[in-house]
Amino acid sequence: MAERATDQGLVQRKLRLLMELRRAGIADARILGAIERTPREQFVAPAFADQAYENVALPIDHGQTISQPYVVALMTEKLEISERHKVLEIGTGSGYQTAILARLGRRVFTIERHRELLQAAEVRLDALRLRNIVFRLGDGAQGWPEQVPFDRVIVTAAAEVVPSTLIDCLAPGGLLVAPVGCDRRNQQLLRIRRGEDGFATEDFGLVRFVPLVAGLPRQERA
Fold it and tell me: Do residues 93 and 122 lie in contact, with contact meaning Cβ atoms separated by under 8 Å?
């Protein structure tokens, strides 16, 4: 009985979150549907399970975060993903953003520099039966050269400038969405579009992300 009450509470919180996202301007039914079908409580630490459907970022291991649901929805919306698209994600983290991408695109290639985070995300996403994801332990700033080009690229950590490696891996007509800025209080969410005559950049306002760190942690290099 208590378990059913807990489940009903999660459903009600999820519905409130979806209504909040709609009021904030997220109108894409596919994105809202992907968020509805993805159990965020499975991607947060048990201590924060009661906050899983609050519209806030939450801490995960290795000093990383699971992004605020609105920011996940906004970045996904700006990617304009279709079921034909091949997507590169830099920063797997908990795997929550990965799950949303996998429900919308054809295939997701995701890179994480912390082995423990990557392995935990693999377990979660496998349990959700999302089979169109390929994982890699590595330096996200270097991209995934063997799989170039990508239709869509999303970066879930902020760099002072977007690495040219990630911009150059875009297919013609491709989009990249990333936070940019070295100060956590002054990062801009940018979208870069590859057109016939070069690259065009749009700014979608302030965000706050952990920094994009080049290279692998010492224990992974060892």
Answer: no
What pLDDT is attached to residue 4? 52
State the pLDDT at residue 5: 47
Count Cβ neighbours within 10 Å for each residue of 9-26 and write b for 16 or more, e otherwise. ebeebbeebbeebeeeeb
Collapse the DSSP code of 198 into the 3-class scheme (helix H, G, I; strand E, B; otherwise coil) and give the result: strand
Question: Measuring CA to CA, which residue among 73, 127, 55, 67 is closest to residue 92?
Answer: 67
Measure the CA angle with vertex 53, ends 48 and 56; round to 5°: 75
Please tell me the distance from the alpha carbon of residue 20 to that of residue 26, in angstroms, as a whole number. 9
pTM metric for this prediction: 0.93
Answer whether the bond into residue 59 is a cis peptide, omega within 30°: no
Question: pLDDT for 129-172, tens place per residue?
Answer: 999 999 999 999 999 999 999 999 999 999 999 999 999 999 99
The DSSP call for residue 76 is H
Report residue 88 as tokens: 């590169």
Beta strands in 56-160 (DSSP E): 58-59, 65-66, 86-90, 107-112, 133-137, 150-155
Q: 61, 63, 71: which is closest to 94 by C-alpha? A: 61
- Residue ranges per domain, the chain? 55-221
Annotation says 82 is catalytic: no
Fold (topology level) of 55-221: Rossmann fold (3.40.50)
Out of 67, 82, 94, 164, which one is annotated catalytic?
A: 67
Whether 115 and 138 have beta carbons less than 8 Å apart is answered as no
